[in-house]
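Review form for a predicted model. The reviewer records the input and the model, then writes brief findings.
Reviewer: anonymous (R2)
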Amino acid sequence: MKNSSTGPQRASSQADAKPAAGTTMTRRRFLKHGAAALLGAGLAVGAYASLWEPNRLEVRRLTLALTGLPAAFNGLKVVQFSDMHLGFYTGAKDAVRVVEAINREQPDLICFTGDMVDGGLDALEEAIQPLSGLEAAFGKYSILGNHDFYDVAKLIRMEEKAGFTVLRNSRVMLKRGGEAIAVAGLDDGIWGRPDPAAALDGLPEGMFKLVLMQEPDYGDTTAEYPVHLQLSGHSHGGQVRLPWLGEVVTPPGAKRYVQGLYYVGSRGMPLYVNRGIGMTQLPVRLLCQPELTVLTLRSEGV
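Model under review:
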């Protein structure tokens, strides 16, 4: 009997299977999806950097043990803020937020380290009232930054109206318990003429001296004088920082010292660099939040 089969059946294989229509990822579709993902990520980062992070104020607290600080001033609480840049995407509303944050800390001394405005003075006019609400037992002191030179005389009058004592190569004496310290402020290092000798002239040898100076790199000069602590701003911490790389760019005067605490010169003078409140050039902050610094000063050995 003959086999009725017409021949061997061809076994089916995976190689013969064809993908269903619409399931393949062509090169064009891959690139399209990749571009969309990158665009979405870019928009998300942009929104974060322009809308979210600039409004996230970090309160950074440090305790510094300092040689030469009199025992009567042991525990002195100094609040530093810097670089408001009023008029460039910051205004009276931001001043209210900062003032409230500072007053919650109940500081003994308030120091503003320059760049109150960014160009004109209209925004400062609106911010005078909230800034007037800053409270500290030893008062509030301000220096000029490179962005404050639009109309220096008028700016100083406005800051004084808000209750600041503006220090320009000058100093004040703070007294407590029969002892004293000096708080000195230097003129801006870019558009002004800083003169540490004039600011410190006549002070007793060994007296504790706190110096306010906008540009942190000037600390290399300040450290040559008998200064115990310098507070600076100007850098904005770079304003834009990248993971593992740090700051992308910093302005002249803030190339060596960018953010945080440093010890400068042969004496190891402490220098603290505040990241500031506002922005300049670009209205963004990335991985570099606005900063309010609360420094508690301790007398070494007490």
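Findings: The longest strand covers residues 58-66.
Further findings: Residues 1-17, 35-52 have pLDDT under 50 and may be disordered.
Recommendation: see findings above.
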